[in-house]
Amino acid sequence: KQEVTQIPAALSVPEGENLVLNCSFTDSAIYNLQWFRQDPGKGLTSLLLIQSSQREQTSGRLNASLDKSSGRSTLYIAASQPGDSATYLCAVPISSGSARQLTFGSGTQLTVLP
Amino acid sequence: EPEVTQTPSHQVTQMGQEVILRCVPISNHLYFYWYRQILGQKVEFLVSFYNNEISEKSEIFDDQFSVERPDGSNFTLKIRSTKLEDSAMYFCASNLDWTDTQYFGPGTRLTVL
């Protein structure tokens, strides 16, 4: 059974700092990995999807890397801003049926202090 | 930009009552999902739907739950007889292909009293 773990559970940094969020998964036979942002009481906003054939994916100040063999992904946020404060979730699809439901980590709650 | 929409945003119901949560997935998407998130816990998969039938369902999705795509745009989740433990945020998601990004709606907060 696929298990997804995210550390740290919470992180507080001063504005402007670069930071790294970690995600690990137990079954390396994944098709892709998706990073989401969740604001309190809100839905999930997709940030990046990184395919299993890719090593990195970038969007603005965000960069996601994927190392399937070690079962790890990282989300790098450059020059953090208070508006980046949110919970960041990673998720991997499970292979079953025609669709591919996602298994989520518990998230890292990020606070960027002004 | 196309987005997944959900109604209502908040639903309060009495235990034992039926509720229907509604979703409008992105129009050209083919795969549809329901997830839920109990307060303070992980997002959990409930059910996936493709080609007008359930593709996969979790242990949570028992006989009290059902899904339907009554027309070309709506995707609904029905809970027949709600329990206190059904209180959660319910998210609908869709994607064009199973390899693609899943796009999530804003969620419906269900409170069962």
Question: Explain this structure to me?
Answer:
The complex is a heterodimer of chains A (114) and B (113). Chain A has 114 residues and is an all-beta fold. Helix content of chain A is 0%, strand content 56%. Chain A contains no helices and 11 strands. The radius of gyration of chain A is 14 Å and the shape is globular. Chain B has 113 residues and is mainly β. Chain B is 0% helix and 50% strand. In chain B, the strands form 2 sheets. In chain B, strands 2, 4, 5, 6, 9, 10 and 11 form a 7-stranded mixed beta sheet that branches. In chain B, strands 1-3-8-7 form a 4-stranded antiparallel beta sheet, with no helix packed on it. In chain B, strand 7 (65-68) and strand 8 (75-79) form a beta hairpin. The termini of chain B are far apart. In chain B, 35% of the residues are buried. The interface between A and B is medium-sized, with 28 and 28 residues.
Largest sheet of chain A: 6 strands, mixed
Number of strands of chain A: 11
Averaging pLDDT over every residue of chain B, what do you get? 94
Quaternary structure annotation: heterodimer
- Separation of termini of chain A? 41 Å
Portion of residues in helices of chain A?
Answer: under 10%
Give the C-alpha Rg of chain B: 13 Å
Low-pLDDT regions of chain A: none
The total strand number of chain B stands at: 11
The arrangement of helices and strands of chain B along the chain is EEEEEEEEEEE
Q: What proportion of the residues of chain A form beta strands (DSSP E)?
A: over 45%
Order of helices and strands of chain A: EEEEEEEEEEE
**Helix/strand structural class of chain A:** mainly beta
Unreliably modeled segments of chain B? none
The value of Rg of chain A in angstroms is 14 Å
Beta strand % of chain B = over 45%
Biggest interface found? A-B, 28 and 28 residues
Distance between the termini of chain B: 37 Å
Note the main sheet of chain B.
Answer: 7 strands, mixed
